[in-house]
Specification:
By secondary structure, the protein is mainly alpha-helical. About 80% of the residues lie in helices and about 0% in strands. The chain has 13 helices and no strands.
C-alpha cells in the first residue's frame, strides 16, 4: 500500500464518520409520538446505576443507539434474551455500535501500520479479512447475549427441580400449598430461586393463584417446565388431597430430566477433552514418521 492509498483510506474513514454523525443528529430528535406521549416519571438514581453497570463498549457506542433503533433493532428474539438477562436495549445497541466503529477503523489502521513497515497485503485477502472481522464485531454482542440467556434459562430449569422437591417435602410435613411454596423458595438465596420467590410473592399480593405466577415466569424466561408445573398445580388445585401426589410425580420427572442433562453435559465435556489428546498424538506420529518417509522418498 502506497502513501496515496493510506491517505485515501484515512480520508474515507473520516468522511464515513462525518456522515454517521449527521445521521445520528438527524435521528436523535424525538418523534411526534414521543412528544405527545405522557412523560415518564424521572428516576435519576436507577439511570445512574444503569450507566455505572455498563461496560466500556456500551459507553463508547451510545451515539449510535438512535440510528439502530430507527432501523428496527433489536429483533423480537433478541428482546426476549435481553429481558431474560435483565439488560437494557440501549446498552445492547451501544455495544453493536462500538462493534461497527471497530470494524471500520481497526483494519485500515492495521493495514497502514503494516504498509509503513514494508509489509504488502494483496487486496483480495485484505478485503476478506476485513469482511470477516466486521462480521465478528457485529455478531459478538448477539452471541454473548445468547450464551448468557441460555445459561440463565438452564439455571431456572435446574432451580425448578429442587423447588418442586422442597414443595413435596413441605407438604409431607403438614404445610398447606401456599405455605409449602413459600417455604421452598426461602430455602435458597440464589438468583433463580429469588426469581421464583418474587413471582410467587407478587401473585400473593395481587390475590392471584400461584400457578399463574409460575406460568408467567416460564413464559418470560422461555422455560416450558414452569408451564407444566403450573398446569399440575392448577389441575390439583380443585382436589387438595391430590396436590402432594401430583407434585411428587412432577418433581420426579424434573429430577430425571435434570440428571439426564447433567449426564449429557459430562459426556460432551469428555468428548471435547479427547480431541486435544488425539491431535497431540497425531502430531507426534507425524513428527516420528516424516523423517523416515522423507529418507525413503529421497533414496529412490
Amino acid at each position: 500500500m502506497t502513501t496515496t492509498t493510506v491517505l485515501a483510506v484515512v480520508g474515507g474513514i473520516v468522511a464515513g464518520l462525518g456522515v454517521w454523525l449527521l445521521v445520528v443528529v438527524r435521528f436523535a430528535r424525538p418523534s411526534l409520538s414521543d412528544l405527545l406521549a405522557d412523560p415518564h416519571p424521572h428516576r435519576p438514581a436507577p439511570e445512574r446505576m444503569e450507566k455505572a453497570r455498563q461496560g466500556a463498549a456500551a459507553r463508547l457506542g451510545g451515539f449510535g443507539v438512535p440510528v439502530l433503533s430507527a432501523l428496527g433493532l433489536p429483533g423480537a428474539r433478541t428482546r426476549r434474551n435481553l429481558d431474560v438477562c435483565e439488560r437494557g436495549t440501549a446498552e445492547f445497541l451501544a455495544e453493536k455500535t462500538t462493534g461497527i466503529v471497530l470494524a471500520l477503523v481497526v483494519p485500515p489502521l492495521l493495514g497502514s501500520v503494516l504498509a509503513m513497515g514494508g509489509v504488502r497485503i494483496p487486496p483480495l485477502p485484505a478485503g476478506v479479512a476485513w469482511a470477516l472481522f466486521a462480521l465478528v464485531a457485529w455478531l459478538a454482542p448477539d452471541l454473548s447475549l445468547r450464551d448468557e440467556a441460555r445459561k440463565r434459562r438452564e439455571r431456572m430449569r435446574h432451580a425448578l427441580a429442587g423447588f418442586a422437591d422442597l414443595v413435596v417435602v413441605s407438604l409431607a410435613g403438614g404445610a398447606g400449598v401456599n405455605g409449602a411454596l413459600a417455604d421452598a423458595t426461602a430455602a435458597s438465596e440464589n438468583w433463580a430461586m429469588a426469581q421464583i420467590r418474587i413471582a410467587l410473592r407478587g401473585a400473593s399480593l395481587h390475590r392471584e393463584p400461584p400457578w399463574s405466577a409460575l406460568r408467567v415466569l416460564g413464559e418470560r424466561f422461555d422455560v416450558p417446565e414452569y408451564a407444566e408445573l403450573s398446569a399440575s398445580l392448577q389441575l390439583a388445585g380443585a382436589d387438595g388431597a391430590r396436590v402432594r401426589s401430583s407434585l411428587a410425580a412432577k418433581a420426579r420427572t424434573l429430577r430425571t430430566q435434570h440428571l439426564a442433562e447433567l449426564d449429557a453435559d459430562a459426556q460432551s465435556a469428555t468428548e471435547r477433552m479427547s480431541l486435544p489428546v488425539v491431535l497431540l498424538f497425531a502430531g507426534f506420529l507425524v513428527l516420528l514418521g516424516y523423517p523416515a518417509l522423507s529418507h525413503i522418498l529421497t533414496s529412490l
